[in-house]
## 1
Amino acid sequence: MSTATLANKTLEIDAEGFLKDHTQWNKDIARELAEQEGIFELTDRHWTVIEFMRKEYEEKGDGPSIRKLTKESGVPTKELYQLFPKGPAKKAAKIAGIPKPTGCI
């Protein structure tokens, strides 16, 4: 198990950099994770997706697939790829502090 220091906290992460304990997440951690993913500003639209990801994980125990994300978050697929390039569900899950969704490669 690896660790990372984010927002002045030492956190356990998995081999791909996902937080092991989603309850340690906060918005400062999200901002640092986003920067690591090449996203240097989290807009209101980013937060809409991030909050949807966290809600789904807390309610169902898994992050939503890209299909569910598109259908239920109110953010269309094209915009998701603009907000979170190269794998929006995976990247949004990482920034949201939840494990990689089951359907992600």
## 2
Amino acid sequence: MDRPNYITPSGYTALKDEYDDLLTGERPRLVEVVSWAAGNGDRSENGDYIYGRKRLREIDRRLGFLARRMKAAKVVDPARQEDRTRVWFGATVRIVDEDERERIVTMVGDDETDAAAGRIGWNAPIARALRGAAVGDVRRVTLPAGEREYEVIAISYPD
């Protein structure tokens, strides 16, 4: 990876929980089903065996992905941010565009994004444009729909 995988403590916990659930929960249960299905004879028409093996490959790929992401993770606690006057990782920012539409976004790790909840990845175009901005700053963002300007109205961090 060419850049750090910043993540909040709760985001890291979510990755670890998913990893542990797959490794110690779903995968062992599926191995049992596949083993049972393999003992039933003809595997070429055995749905439990065929789809069980397919799901095992999916789980193993996901486990590898999660392991790589956790290894590259740099956990950053936004509550410990010293410079709370500027937009940095973990900041919750209230912005307004040229049409006076207001949005509230929180800068989180790329693995914990949720656009519907206003949680945008640290490497998203809006997040990159807002990095280091202070209240009152206007930043231009190039989005798929075109360029937009956003003014920072408020910045907050968790306590």
## 3
Amino acid sequence: MSVFKLNDKAPDFKLTGLDRKEYHLAEMLEQNDEKWFLLIYFRGSWCPACMEELDELEDTKSYFDKHNVSLITVTHDEKSSLEEMMQEHQFSFPVLLDEDFSFLKAYDVHYHGEDAPYEDHGEHAEPAYFLLNENGKVLYQQRQTNPFGRPHAKEIRKTISYIRKNLK
């Protein structure tokens, strides 16, 4: 697993979205129009806390658009379950499939495996958040080891505002 600090260049990734498009971070940065990227790894469509969070992000997506922040979500959940989720929730941001756990490993997302000290819906990744600037440098990161304590959309908006205001 890779460990990186704030202001480090984020690891590159190439993942396919539910929209069947390929998302390659290096290409998105090359074609970038000064956009920042908020990458959110979520547990899966089966997780009520994740669905509540994604609904809240969708409801406040205009804030992210206004502040030139592109929302991108990532999960390793089953494609068929995610397609049902998209039909029900109609998210306008990309949902990328991390089928081979390449993003999870590169971004050091916590994996709740069979060796975990407590049972929690089987094996899965936990929520993680990465805010990248227009050059792909990490401005903010948070990795959870359980489903609770994650920042809500309001806290993420405050974080983005704070970072923009205090950027060196």
